[in-house]
Please model this.
Amino acid sequence: MMGVMEKKLRWGVLSTAKIGMKKVLPAMQLGRYSTVTAIASRNRARAESAAAELKIPKAYGSYEELLADPEIDAIYNPLPNQLHVPWTIKAAEAGKHVLCEKPLSLTVAEANKLLMVRATSGVKIGEAFMIRCHPQWLRVRELLRAGRIGELRSVVGFFSYFNTDPANIRNQVETGGGALMDIGCYLIHAARYGFGQEPTRVVASIDNDPAMRTDRLTSALLEFPAGQAIFTCSTQLVQYQRVHFIGTKGRIEIEIPFNAPNDRPTRIFIDSGDVFGDGIEIESFPACDQYTLQGDAFSRAMLENTEVPVPLEEGIRNMAVIEALFNSAKSGQWENPRP
Model:
């Protein structure tokens, strides 16, 4: 007889978005506990083409059709940011669990609507921070909790890429584009993850693109009960990413924290304070696909009725920091995140 652990959660996908087609779906298809059953587009031909490309059994010409399919257990929602909450609500109301791409919403008020629909529908809703399933991040938390670098007092992060295409949704204000929403959310998540706390107040400096009006260079300072986090993110700088966790006795650096490759090992550096780096220990993690791990972790949570890796409350708290940083850039003052 098949045990729970041998079952696979049947996934449906809203849209043929690039992140899904190129990264998430091929990875989920390799999962032990997940299988991609259907994909939908507002254009049936596009859905059929995507289904053929990825060998997905079903293609639908509307999102509503997919949500009505009784053979789908969960929905992956990689739609543009402004459609995250509306379609997550519709999926939940259709009785489907939802893994929603980050950022969860455009505002805290919008994200809070999901709490009610989750309560009434009884489904699970999670945010797709795939980094939370990667072994390098799990190891960092283990080291921090073990006191490997003493008391964590500072988290320093940087995340950037260069994209000035006005047709790209990441450069459109109405779709929730800009650096803070697209990649700054990871840096906020990393700081909250490291400290295991919420920031009490935040302040930001934002430079907006004069034509596209999205934030192209954002720097922030987050004040936590245990210390501080600083970060810069940009959509118009050379591609780069790094996160440092700095404590009273040492430092941990994640070499490729967010876009961890699936075809080569990743590394973290543990530094006990030698300014020349002679005493740095390197821990290496075998090649893995964090999207496969994310799909399996979410699927197992459904199959075993346990908590998803990044539950709704986590997403709302991250959104509260994003919102407070935008408010700070306008007010020129410290702002308090209000989830």
Remarks:
- The domain at 4-130+304-308 is CATH 3.40.50.720 (Rossmann fold).
- Residues 266 and 285 are 5 Å apart (CA to CA).
- The longest helix spans residues 312-331.
- The radius of gyration is 20 Å.
